[in-house]
Amino acid sequence: MAKKSNFVLDDDLPDVQRDEVEAFKAGVNDTTVRSFKKGEESQAKKRVFERYTFSLTSDLSRDIDKLSYMPRDFRANRSDVIKAAVNLLNSLSKKEIIEHLRKVK
After folding, report:
1. What average pLDDT is seen over the chain?
2. How many whole angstroms separate alpha carbon 2 and alpha carbon 84?
3. From its phi and psi, is residue 87 left (phi > 0), alpha (psi between -120 and 50) or beta?
């Protein structure tokens, strides 16, 4: 007697779920999947991210984690916190940026 497989083949899925599976396989995030379903071309697909490594103290790493947990109506990750910090610094004058950088030196 043949044993039945627990795996679901992509062909067995409804179209909507098949789209999500294909997007997941391609490394597309949830926002892109929702846009794809609506037939819109997503900006997220056009973005190209590079991975960078830098050192943090454990206290600063914990602070970044705490900041990423603050939003309750969307998900923020550590990269989002860093991007927000850079955006905020870019909105300051050169003098103010230097003052803030001096504080963390």
Report:
1. 76
2. 56
3. alpha
Residue of 95, 92, 88, 44 lying closest to 67 (CA atoms): 88
- Mark whether 38 and 76 lie in a shared domain: no
Domain of 75, in residue numbers = 58-104
**Number of domains the chain contains:** 2
How far is residue 53's CA from residue 55's CA, in Å, rounded to a whole number? 7
Q: What whole-number distance in Å separates Cα of residue 63 and Cα of residue 78?
A: 10
Write down the pTM of the prediction.
0.54
User: What are the pLDDT digits (tens) for 23-81?
Assistant: 666 665 555 555 555 555 555 566 777 888 889 999 999 999 999 999 999 999 999 99
Write down the residue that tokens 């905020």 correspond to. 88
Q: DSSP state, 70?
A: -
